């Protein structure tokens, strides 16, 4: 038995060596991080699996990389972007980072709308009646104004009265003449208007709206100036209605304890 145990102890190492030589070699994917995390000033080679690598020394590139928390995929992406900088037709990295797909879509839609509006403006023509008058209707609050505009010396009548007599308040008169000031045509047109409903503020606003619409019908080239000032848009603001249990639309009654 002793001789058998001795033979077994002699042949066991030989069998293990043969088994190791018959196993297929397994190659692992080379990684970039072990080399970057090491001290770049060290001349020793990294042996790979089974060897515990010492931590990089403070102040080295490997130490800074370890503190940054970059992964291997992130490093591969950075290296790829650096390698693609010289390719013809590829935008610079700074331009790629500043690209905003949503912003580009909005800008494209705005450009399309601008081109459409330009085409519509080209089709606009002077619209007057047989007497050379441009007619338009203006509205504001509860007021409705009918305006006839034609070339003249600046004469202005409202419901058969001169506009300074119809509107004693100078603020209403200034508000009503704003379209002429915006288009630099003050005194170049005569205006005849009829207005009903509402108060002085609503009536002056309705006449202003009607004058703006009549001006763009008489001369389509005046439309951009009026449009940019917002004078062609009907002002939809009205007084808010009274609510039940309230003194006015929002105002509450005085609170009484008893």
UniProtKB/TrEMBL annotation:
Keyword flag Ribosomal protein: yes
Sequence segments annotated as region (Disordered): 237-258
TM ranges: none
Pfam families for this protein: Ribosomal_S9 (PF00380)
Record field: compositional bias (Basic residues): 243-258
NCBIfam families: PRK00132.1
GO (cellular component) term, any one: cytosolic small ribosomal subunit
UniProt record similarity statement: Belongs to the universal ribosomal protein uS9 family.
SUPFAM superfamilies, per the entry: Ribosomal protein S5 domain 2-like
Protein's name according to its UniProt entry: 30S ribosomal protein S9, chloroplastic
Gene Ontology MF term list: RNA binding; structural constituent of ribosome
Organism: Physcomitrium patens
Keyword Ribonucleoprotein in annotation: yes
Keywords, in A-Z order: Ribonucleoprotein, Ribosomal protein
InterPro entries: Ribosomal_Su5_D2-typ_SF, Ribosomal_uS9, Ribosomal_uS9_bac/plastid, Ribosomal_uS9_CS, Ribsml_uS5_D2-typ_fold_subgr
GO biological process per UniProt: translation
